[in-house]
UniProtKB/TrEMBL annotation:
GO terms for biological process: formaldehyde catabolic process. This is Alcohol dehydrogenase. It holds the Pfam family ADH_zinc_N. It comes from the Eukaryota. Homodimer. Its cofactor is Zn(2+).
Amino acid sequence: MSKSSSSQIITCKAAVIWGCGEPLKVEDIQIDAPKSTEVRVRMLYASLCHTDIIRAQGKEDPLPLFPRVLGHEGVGAVESFGDEVEGLEEGDYVIPTMLAECGACENCTSAKTNFCLTYPFSLGGLMSDGTSRMSIKGHKLYNMFSCSTWSEYMVIDSKFVCKIDPSIALPHASLLSCGFSTGFGAAWKEARVKMGSTVAVLGLGAVGLGVTEGARMQGAAKIIGIDKNIMKKDKGLAFGMTDFINPDDYPDKSISQIIKDLTGGMGVDYCFECVGAEYLINQAIQATKEGKGKTIVIGGGIKSVKIDYFPLLSGRTLKGSIFGGLKVKSDLPIVLEKCKNKEFHLDELLTHEVTLDDIEKAFELLKQPDCVKVLIKI
């Protein structure tokens, strides 16, 4: 296989944020050449995830790092790569991943987790050697997790990319690098939803709709979607939701009680919290069946949560999840194959599109009730 390397520094445009709550500025930055195990990618599309908003606002961010180029959802083409990279060629389409899979460590050989110990999940915003491949005006720039997709080019370690079939619609591929895959995986791999079971989904954004699709494909008999935005009802139905709850319609009832009323007083087998709110996490636990109910927490944005103890003591399970429990090499290709075969309803997610120059508009669009996902065309 031919090897590609480039020592050339590329100057390109990227959306830079200089501090907590500051506006994004599309500025010229410098992208260094990839080192031995790294890939430089020409970005084509990116998308906006709730986690990016949290980092931009600096709210509940466990490690605020600035200046920074955000974005961890996206798709691009390989421009160059280091001499130790295997399995990639110039022009290959790839999506970034926040996790890796070595296939040999204790975690990678276990069916219980997708957290690789050899190439760990990092919040440090730098490459594995502790340096950055991006700079601006003499300042190093921090990544968002393993990459920065809100840029015309980025450098990422090859362990954190997944090659995709060129026949997959590129806007759809961008969504599969985090949000939708996280939700789908949570139902498929993390909860392992059983045929004929009952499911509740708190929050019908891209993650929640991914959960809904996954629960439908797993054969759940009842899938209850909960959201205060009435416009999410049609989206949920398109992905397989059977019942919709707007909590505002029940001012005298808790969410958990409404869910129990829909399930004969029993509660659901599985509840997925896709927002990241203390109240909803506790409601999710209480909405599951006593003795065997399982709650999966996927939503980000809070540092600490006070958990009501008795519902857990009553035999319920609470589990956290990153990337829906999906292993990058073992599971993500299966998700991509389903996308290629058009088994997902991803067109329902792509409601708005902006250019990189207009990325600030994406934050405003997300406040619109009809917005699910904003695609950034690069």
